[in-house]
Amino acid sequence: MNPLKFVKDRPLDLIAIGRLCIDLNANETNRPMEETSTFTKYVGGSPANIAIGSARLGQKTGFIGKVSNDQMGRFITNYLEKNDIDTKGVTTDLTGAVTGLAFTEIKSPDDCSILMYRDNVADLKLHPYDVDEDYIKQSKALLISGTALAKSPSREAVFVALEYAEKHEVTVFFDLDYRPYTWTDEAETAVYYNLAAEKCNVIIGTREEFDMMEKLLNVEESDDHFTASRWFSYHSDLVVIKHGDAGSIAYTKDNKSHRSGIFQTNVLKTFGAGDSYASAFIYGLMNGKEVSEAMKLGSASASIVISRHSCSDAMPTEEELENHMETAVYQQS
Amino acid sequence: MNPLKFVKDRPLDLIAIGRLCIDLNANETNRPMEETSTFTKYVGGSPANIAIGSARLGQKTGFIGKVSNDQMGRFITNYLEKNDIDTKGVTTDLTGAVTGLAFTEIKSPDDCSILMYRDNVADLKLHPYDVDEDYIKQSKALLISGTALAKSPSREAVFVALEYAEKHEVTVFFDLDYRPYTWTDEAETAVYYNLAAEKCNVIIGTREEFDMMEKLLNVEESDDHFTASRWFSYHSDLVVIKHGDAGSIAYTKDNKSHRSGIFQTNVLKTFGAGDSYASAFIYGLMNGKEVSEAMKLGSASASIVISRHSCSDAMPTEEELENHMETAVYQQS
Amino acid sequence: MNPLKFVKDRPLDLIAIGRLCIDLNANETNRPMEETSTFTKYVGGSPANIAIGSARLGQKTGFIGKVSNDQMGRFITNYLEKNDIDTKGVTTDLTGAVTGLAFTEIKSPDDCSILMYRDNVADLKLHPYDVDEDYIKQSKALLISGTALAKSPSREAVFVALEYAEKHEVTVFFDLDYRPYTWTDEAETAVYYNLAAEKCNVIIGTREEFDMMEKLLNVEESDDHFTASRWFSYHSDLVVIKHGDAGSIAYTKDNKSHRSGIFQTNVLKTFGAGDSYASAFIYGLMNGKEVSEAMKLGSASASIVISRHSCSDAMPTEEELENHMETAVYQQS
Amino acid sequence: MNPLKFVKDRPLDLIAIGRLCIDLNANETNRPMEETSTFTKYVGGSPANIAIGSARLGQKTGFIGKVSNDQMGRFITNYLEKNDIDTKGVTTDLTGAVTGLAFTEIKSPDDCSILMYRDNVADLKLHPYDVDEDYIKQSKALLISGTALAKSPSREAVFVALEYAEKHEVTVFFDLDYRPYTWTDEAETAVYYNLAAEKCNVIIGTREEFDMMEKLLNVEESDDHFTASRWFSYHSDLVVIKHGDAGSIAYTKDNKSHRSGIFQTNVLKTFGAGDSYASAFIYGLMNGKEVSEAMKLGSASASIVISRHSCSDAMPTEEELENHMETAVYQQS
Asked: Which ipTM was obtained for this model?
């Protein structure tokens, strides 16, 4: 059963809010970054990737975010528009902020790392006044991502978006996406993750992310069922907990759990797995699929993206996703 | 009817959390501060004043806060202890922060102003890790005050305290106490005031403070009934809205409103009116008084404090409060 | 012999540049500040004190500094004007800075300490653009003090003043006045003290202050003669090195050294000794006294100020200074 | 005549101090950066480029700087070592700083721009304690560059290096290299440029850079002869003033001026012209060439580098430089 209901007849299916940045992926792979010499530039950032994935799958998608007033910022906005993403909610920083960068290093398919530039970045300058109530109420769903909660004023902008979403019955997806480097400490992170999660309909995260959130409350044991139930007592209808290689488990408010498997693929790198999963999973749920079927779509999308060089530009279209599901080897977990 | 229930048999009646600072009140009154030459030092800060008022009225009171590692910090802790306030939750800053200062200027009873020192203050360094779940669960009630939400990490410490309070059924009072000088902008303020207010049982503020909170949500008209109802849909049982000279109005969840009047007094200055009101009002509610009766206690306490030189040191004992109610002229609004 | 020459026929004798702040001196002495309850407000800051001392002794004195846009700032400017100090060079901060504070604690005449408020202070916001070449060239001498070098933009403002002084043959006095609390580390301090000292005609400091400056250059032994000679190779004509109770020694470029003694007095506190010494010493030098005679004037002024409650307001007039020299017991060191 | 003397018999010819960063040069040229997609990574930063140029020309070269504790930092140190530059003075930042980045955009040979990442960069964390007196005294010459003066503690580290250089008769070259983006305002810049220039033997800059330095002193007209003379009154023996297409002019203390011309070349981009000029000019002066001959070497090196894709990696060897001087068309200005 699909536990989610979406308001009908709105011009947009999904608005994503938060980080817009640049990935600089080393062209030379299987070596440390000290030994790479050229990089290819892609749009990046978890909510950007999810929005791009969503648009590729045919969803009417918009974005609320802030870009730098330079070539990097314009490249991002141009790319979103080329992918049919509505950028009315994308504003330009005028304080001299830069675009966040992620240099990727692929030592082997299993040993990937990222070198981040996150000082004075435009995406975290998104201000509550940049968030328009009228825009949010034009969408069936809103996607938030944890990184946008890392600093003021972006943090407050997300909370304002959540208020508007609640007021206008916009379904909220929360992809936890916890990246320690922009946060002061775990207590700060947990406070805002918990406050935001209280207001979301669907929460997607790893077991470690949920543990971090519960540690603040002195919860000592990891228990998926407890975790999910806690959020059902607020506004959640669906909680997805990822266990890495051991697969994901989704809980619905009716106390049922749902699992899916993975598709075999030639892994180039692990980046982008979570974002591609989320975009196809949301697409499935918004198109009436059962939870486990939506999870399978997520897995299929992830298996495509991790075999390719980029995260954003690698996102599959509906047709590619269908072909892949028909041809790739699927392994139920 | 008193709409509040308190857990019984706990060692503390009330814990206040937040600002501990120093008031430096000009000894020479009725002139601008340029012309004053001596000052008297008192403990200050809204939650400190309320805690002192509470303890003077015989409530078992504790405090969670942070003081500077100097003579000012030690003066504050000593003063709280002399007033029978439990200071187990008061920690000492070790980063070189100072104690916040408030120099008061009394040009006339109606024209008072404050010159604040709020840079690098110890009280805003209170950290989530300084807030102890076991301590909070020893109290029947928790008082929070808006100023502690103004900056990290104090902001997060308050949210952690609210989580523990909810977990252990500690009744939460929220004295809005909005002081613009420590906040970046109104949107930031409104976001955190709203998030905190959602978790409180009793909210006390001026009409202007509630307006600031509602403006973020594009609410355009001030309407006390709407304001109160909004919070009843979260956790509130009682909302007090102050209208300055026009008196205060309290709403209870049963949709009733309650009013009280004021006691005539010789006004020396207006500082401390709100804190003394809150301390006696809370004392009344915690001791089973009707709402309007508790409001009358609040008014009586305020009329005592505004006739005296300090805020904290002027707080009345039970006996003083009773005497005043018997002797002062009361005027129902 | 007096080694200094001053340009004649300028409207001002001395301009001081730098810190303008407030001293809050405990009225109750011989106890820790935790036990004091009232304070008296005075203008403070080393160059402010020296300027006040200078004006009291009849010198035409001006000031270049920045005050906060509040009652404290106006109090300072008013006080300077009442003391016949020209305040054309005193500008008002418009960024929300506060006036620096120094709470003094007098446990005993030998055990005094200061609690400083130096965050976001107006005096350190003095900007190069606030320093007017035309104003500086109206003075015979300029006094700088180390604290103004502690932070940008005040640091750069002082260097600009030094450029103008050099250009217009204004004699420069440098009172080292090293206060660790506003500096990042000793290396930073030593760099700017050395750069400034290179441009000064008279340098006055304690042995410890000169040691700090030399440590950066890996000078390992304290040697007054070496210290003085080093500065004679730049622009100095006179270097005064203070050895606490062991008295001061002054070196002149002709390789001679000069000493003076102290006047007996009833010490209330030690604050202000250095500033009162400097003001009368400069007054002596600018009025043609021999170096040792100027030093004696400095000692006399110091012995007056340390017997009184304030630093600034205690500065003697010419008449008081003369009387004191006639009546007080002098002890040659 | 070559006005410079160098101490003999030291293990190093030149130590450069300051910025070590990464250039990311767009591989696709003649288009805006919004339309480029790949970048090649090179070591960059003015003193780094000059050091590399110096080493390529056979000078024994060392570096004092700070790199980030990541792949970028290690890439820089490795590259310097591969170019036979001594890196004993290169320390690693441990505070989480990043390597500065310069993304270059080549719209046309005449229209090049740079997008800088200069927040929280490792090179500006160089501390006075990282500068070793014993290391500096092993070199005949020291090269400083203006960017290292932009922020503390790197600013102070440079002044300490200048103190040690003076103490040990190390000849100091100052390449002004003014980049507004790291500075607060022009007054701050001019203060430190002037203080540093006072201590240098050779100063190389554009007319605009010298104007910025003189504006602080209210000098109103640009006059090369005045500019040069001002520095001769401090420690300078040679001042080079660049007038863009109109060529450069060098002044020596004997009041003579020297000019050189340019070599024709196929310009790819203008970046790196100044650094390659400086490295070959210094090489010429340190090898006994006449001033005008050294300037010609500078021009030759510049004409090579601006025809190639990088700045650092394009620096010519002695052999390449000689070949170029024999074959390229030279045009005396």
From this structure: 0.95
